[in-house]
Structures are given as C-alpha cells and as structure tokens.
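Example record

One chain of 336 residues, shown exactly as stored in the release files.
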Amino acid sequence: MKRAPWILSVLAAAALAPSALAQTFGTATQRSGCTAPAHTGSIEARPLNPLTYAADAAGVVVVEMESHAPTGNWEFESSIPGYAGTGYFRWDGPNLFTTPGVDILPFRFVIPADDTYLIRIHNRHDNPTPDQDNDCWARVDGGPWLKLFHNTGTSGVGVWNFNARYEETGEFPEHFFTAGTHTLEISGRSNNFIIDRVHILPKTVWFAQLSDPQSERARDRPVLGDVMRVRMDDPTNAAGLTPGVARTYWFGNFVHPNFPCGLVKPYGEVLIALSPAPGLAGAPVLWQGPGIPAVHSIAIPNDLSLLGTFVGTQGVFLEPGKVVLTDAIDLLIGDV
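Predicted structure tokens for this chain:
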C-alpha cells in the first residue's frame, strides 16, 4: 500500500479484520518544542468518555474514590486521617449480604499489555468485631459479583490497609487482563465499610503504595477500526486569537522528523517532518473561543497494513495576519 503524505489518503477504504495474534498498543504521545513551546493546552488527545484511567509506565492504575460523585448510599467523608487524596467513601446503606449491584461505582481503566493483575483497595473498618462492617461486592468486566473483604483479626480493626481479599479464594483479587479497556465495579455490602482508593497493578509489582499518584485520564489512541480525536484550544487566549475567526488545521506526516527538537519559525516551532510535505487531516475547524476546543477526528479502518505505522502530527491556528503552531502529537497505530 502506497503511503501518501497524510493519513486521509492512506485510510481511504479497506477493512481487513486485524489478526488476533497481532497486538500493538496504539499510542498518542504529546511533544513540545524545545525553544518555542506552544501555549498550554494547544493540542491534546481527547479524554475518553466515560471517565477512564491510564496505566503508568509500570502498568499501575490508581483511582481515588472521590474522583466519582458519591452514588446512592456511598458517603464522602474526610474525618478519619490516613487516607490519600481529599477523602474516602463510606457505605452508609443497609447490609446487602445477598444483593450485589446496588449503588455501583464503576472504574474503567486501560491496560497496555496482556498480564496478570492484582486489585488492591485501600480500606478500613472500625467495628471491634473483626468480621463485621468489613466488606463490599466487586466484579470485573461484567463477571460474577464476589465478596471482597478484610479480616486479619483484631489487629486489623481501625487501621488503613491494602489487604482485602476474595472470600472464594482467600487471596488478593487476581485477574488476567488483555491489553485494552476493562472495568472494575464495586457495590455496597456491609454498612460502614470504608474505601479510600483502588490500585490495579501487575502481579509482578505486587505492593500497592499510598504514595502512588492518581492515574491520569486515558485519552483517544489510534486503534484500527476506531476513531482518533484531538482537541485544539487556547484556554487563556495567550496567543491573542479571535474567537469565531481563527480556524484550526491538523497536519501530519508518516516520516519521523530528522531533528531532536523543532525548527523555530516566527509563528512557533515546527515539530513534524517537512519532507515530503505534510498533508492535511480533514477540513479546518473553527475555534469558538477559550475553553471551547476545536475537535478534529480521523476514522482508522481495520487495515493490518497500518499496524505499527508512525504519524507525526501538529496543529495550526490561522486567522488573517496570524499563524500559531501547536505542540505535536506523535501517533503509533495499534490494534488495541
């Protein structure tokens, strides 16, 4: 397949189903200029909706409970010290020992590689009887609801810990996740059970660290058969653009740039290769003003010849008498 300057001509038609054996994680990597970086928020891959979290370089996902609005009988509190973030959730509903799935808290996350993962929750229970107020329901990817509990005797009462286990196995929750998006759901079971945060980590990592920061939101990635979107904005209008007049353009090139930084021009730092000439990704999109991003999108077909393809991309704001370059986003097309 001949590679034209830009992805539109390459992604013209064709739809070969990707092989189940081929597995390349699609990535969208932000890159700034060394000498003349663009204004903050100039271009970014669009955050996934619903809220989804991305693993860090070690494959670890961390989610604070308060990232979600309290649902139903889950109460946000911050009176007991020892939590991370700004607080924790306490189940203030009835005991639901035979009724899972009430007031569900869903946690979506993206796994970068097939592996066995552990789920560790930072939790506590304060009932002096160690087998009371000490559990919740949990399920993964729509599977069966399982009791997730903590009971290490009286020494485990009134302390924060990561020791919740499945009752069925007596072990920490362990799941084999394929690369891609997965969901953990938690629902109430025992009144007064407290959960601070959720850690999902490769079994080889094992230890959950309270010092681990919350994971960043997962964003659109170039994946065969999916749509890749970027948002272009000037949130503080640092460039002095005119809302409703400035147009945004998204350019790209299949060739890696042959410079470690960029080429500095009066209108910014060029961060993509200029030979062969970059091509335009779709039609221009009008910028409506600060905080209202212009969204560009590309549909990527299920064409195995694109797997592992690099595309360097950069945006441009253009209005009469003014040209402003964005940061770059380097794409690697994957099948997950």
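Notes: The helical segments are 7-10.
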